Amino acid sequence: DVQMTQSLSYLAASPGESVSISCKASKSISNYLAWYQQKPGEAYKLLIYSGSTLQSGTPSRFSGSGSGTDFTLTIRSLEPEDFGLYYCQQYYEKPLTFGSGTKLEIK
Amino acid sequence: EVQLVESGGGLVQPGRSLKLSCLASGFTFSNYGMNWIRQAPGKGLEWVASISSSSSYIYYADTVKGRFTISRDNAKNTLYLQMTSLRSEDTALYYCARRMMVDYWGQGVMVTVSS
Question: Fewest 10 Å CB contacts: which of A78, A89, A95, B56?
């Protein structure tokens, strides 16, 4: 199985700052990587797929990069509504696997 | 508007069975592969099973293989998960999810396995 590692479990930043969340796959997954956001009481939201393609409706301050084994989600100029949990997921092969999540807290 | 609404969860004793349903609306259900994904309390996301649009391809996580059965009824726009021989470690919030890179998630339905 492909293990997905999000090394940062918690991150705090102030509005206007930029943050990056990393995700590492245990083997090459090409660009079959998605990023999700979860807020309390809300359904999970797909932000980015194919490593760097913004899902319709995702604000342009979000960006994704990487391929192979190393990926990064960057949020530029943080907004207060960006707090929440962020997960990466590989869909290169089954079983589909997810990172353990990064909790982003807005200072 | 795409909607996925799960139902059928609840409290069940170990060894018993339960069947989850997911009613889809707002899109052509028969065109999309679907998944069940779960999240145990305080834990991360775990993929459970996938089914292709026409039910031709079905996959399971090793943790549920032989106990759970995913199925769908395209005429009823409904995805199912039949769960048997339930264990305490199956306690989780179960999500219905569209596509392998999940573009839509349900709100989830809670399954608690406990005596």
Answer: B56
The contact set of A with B (CB < 8 A) is: 32, 34, 36, 43-46, 49-50, 55, 87, 89, 91, 94-101
Q: Which residue of A has its CA nearest to B103?
A: A46
Q: What are B56's two structure tokens?
A: 């031709």
- Whether B47 sits inside 8 A of A96 (CB atoms) is yes
**C-alpha to C-alpha distances, B12 to A12, A104, B84, nearest whole angstrom:** 39, 35, 11
DSSP per-residue letters across B85-106? S--GGG-EEEEEEETTTTSEE-
Name the burial class of residue B84, with classes exposed (0-12), middle (13-18) and buried (19+) by CB atoms within 10 angstroms of its CB: middle
Please choose, from the candidates A34, A35, A30, the residue with its C-alpha nearest in 3D space to the C-alpha of residue A67: A30
Which pLDDT tens digit goes with each residue over B43-90?
999 999 999 999 999 999 999 999 999 999 999 999 999 999 999 999
User: Would you call the peptide bond into A95 cis, given omega within 30 degrees of 0 as the criterion?
Assistant: yes
* Separation in Å, CA A104 to CA A70, A80, A83, B3, B30: 20, 10, 5, 27, 37
pLDDT, one tens digit per residue, over A37-96 is 999 889 999 999 999 999 999 999 999 999 999 999 999 999 999 999 999 999 999 999
